[in-house]
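Summary: Need help interpreting a holo structure output

Steps to reproduce:
1. Submit the protein chain below together with the SMILES for coenzyme A.
2. Request a joint structure prediction with the ligand placed.
3. Inspect the structure token block that comes back.

Expected: a single structure record containing both the chain and the bound molecule.
Actual: see attached output.

Input attached:
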Amino acid sequence: MNRVTTLEAYEDDRGNRIEFSGTVEKNIRVKFKGRNNVLRVATQHNIAQLFVDFDCDDGLVEIGSSHGVPGLRAAIRVGDGCQVRIGKNVSSTTTVAMSTAEGTSITIGDDVMIASDTQIRADDGHPIFDVRTGKRVNAARSIVIGNHVWLGLGACVLGGVTIGDGTVVGMRSVVTRSLPNNVVGAGSPAKVVKRNVAWERPHLTLDPPYRKPTAASVKKSTAYWTLTVDPGRPSRSRGIYAGARRRTRRRLRAVRAMADGLTRRT
Ligand SMILES: CC(C)(COP(=O)(O)OP(=O)(O)OC[C@H]1O[C@@H](n2cnc3c(N)ncnc32)[C@H](O)[C@@H]1OP(=O)(O)O)[C@@H](O)C(=O)NCCC(=O)NCCS
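--- attached output ---
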């Protein structure tokens, strides 16, 4: 196993690489156990702490650029053929733990705010089997966290979950099923408790004004001020679906009118 404690351009004889232009010496630890693993970090980063364990082969970790938001602290376990992609301006208050195994991926969008003590786990760490069939019952599954998502303190996101843009995950919530955009998802398992919400980064006591009663007190990230679109229920603003709905309603009216006419005649 090769252990690296400086973030800088690196390559070993088993095809493991770090792609980064610069040098960071504090709070870095990258372990390469297998072959052909790649850690790629944008030049303009804001990494406060980075631990990466490439346990197997063909793993990839990509971390996007960061500017004007607090730093990122992450401990990332990368399994066989797994990928972790972290977008731009992703921050975390303390170390966020991420785990992938068995070809899964974790994708985190841009401008994601991660509170203390959170976990993002595509796998359970150990296998569970059905006693009768011997089949695996807890397959590792990929995770997608959209843009401008806020994970509250102690939140856990489990395998197979997609979280839509602009969504907030409540404190100590365990997200086991996907959440749509612009909702508050809370509880264990997390359920949608509020819809059509938007959050902003300015801190209530650290960033003025110190009372923020309406949206006029913050700079809106307008791209994420969007109504919630439920899965399988297309937004009314989407032209093609709106057109299809109008056509269906027109046909239904015509069928009803025809049925009415037939009833009156008999
Ligand atoms: C998610 C959160 C921001 C939502 O706040 P809110 O919009 O004011 O939500 P409300 O308090 O009105 O709660 C709405 C419902 O969700 C439930 N709920 C809210 N947060 C919950 C949580 N973390 N776990 C379980 N249920 C929760 C409430 O009980 C309420 O249920 P009800 O309608 O049945 O009474 C807040 O609850 C939270 O978790 N705050 C902590 C944020 C954090 O981690 N900050 C750290 C610094 S980044």
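--- end attachment ---

Reviewer comment: Residues 173 and 187 are 5 Å apart (CA to CA). The helical segments are 239-265.
Status: needs-info
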